[in-house]
Write the structure tokens for this entry.
Amino acid sequence: MQGSPVRQLLLQTDFMRFWWARLSGVTGNQMLMVAVAWHMYDLTDSAWDLGLVGLFQFVPALVFTLPAGHAADRWHRGRIYAACMLLQVLIALVLVLATAGEFINRELILGISVGLGVARAFQMPVQQALTPLLVPQDLLQRAIALSSSAQQVAVIGGPALGGLLYVGGAMWVYGSCAALMLLALIFALQVRLKVRPRHQAANLAMVLAGFTYIWRRKLLLGVISLDLFAVLLGGATALLPIYARDILDVGPAGLGLLRAAPAMGSLMVSLAMMRWPLHRHVGKRLLMATAVFGLSIIVFGLSTSFGLSMLALIVSGAADSVSVVTRVTLLQMDTPDELRGRVSAVNSIFIGASNQLGEFESGALAALAGPIAAVVLGGVGTILIAAGWYYLFPSLAKRDRMFDD
């Protein structure tokens, strides 16, 4: 590891408490996602219903995210994050009881998905807006990279562990999720912040201030819309149960590994960027990483080999990590603190649209054209988006340094 800056980062006590909260919470959430997806497919055998799980998470996130961003700019962000963890603990316990009582069904899973969407709506803005308050500015890019590494460790370990536990029954997964999210809640409550009360009227203009700020800064608009369309088209997560069971024949344990594979690549790149942050040609590297992401999705879609499929997903995660660290750093550095919650909320809407709405799009297209065609067409679309954004957002393509002088 590089000497002083990394050591300084690890000595930031409240940042590290939040790091552990994210690690525990995301691990539990990822275990929950893999179990819910497999459970739904077991119950219904339907690609359409897998897509609906994503849609039912996206709609409440869309409705509540902007008010959540306003809340993040007014109140203690650590307490809001803890409340999101508490809601997910309760959701996991409901799933434990429903599975034990054998009354879990399609409608209950869709209802649970709505609850997860509400939790996500509040969690994402505060999660992004909290980090700049916990570290000095010169450590921010490394802090975001380290936070991303926690996320990716969780996304690797969570699905793999969830898939293995599911072999013994879904109740084992749901119970473990509840315990991990409770641990995240405890860590989050220990994060100390100097909260400056902000008496802002909750009118429409204040709630929409994040949109206004991004719209007037075309570079930021280009960054978050690039992620929106790339992942909306190139996301294959919703179809992984179909690939695991019907194409690759690897079962729930294999599904856990497939879900973990992108995070393996992302973790490696996140750790590398913590030691060697990007300094030059930031915009072009972001666009190139997006094109590589699309190409890897095409390879995954065409593969019938478990090993090649894992490799393609690992590469997709590595490319996506460049996008995540770059996007979040640019957003946080180019936004004043009094607007970070609302700007992060707008970013969360775009992320939610690209992930949850992308899952619905993948499921719907797979129901019409088949899973392979759905994944391959999405990868091609992602490459076209990367090429188009080079010309539509020249300020993004020309951005040289992460910290614009």
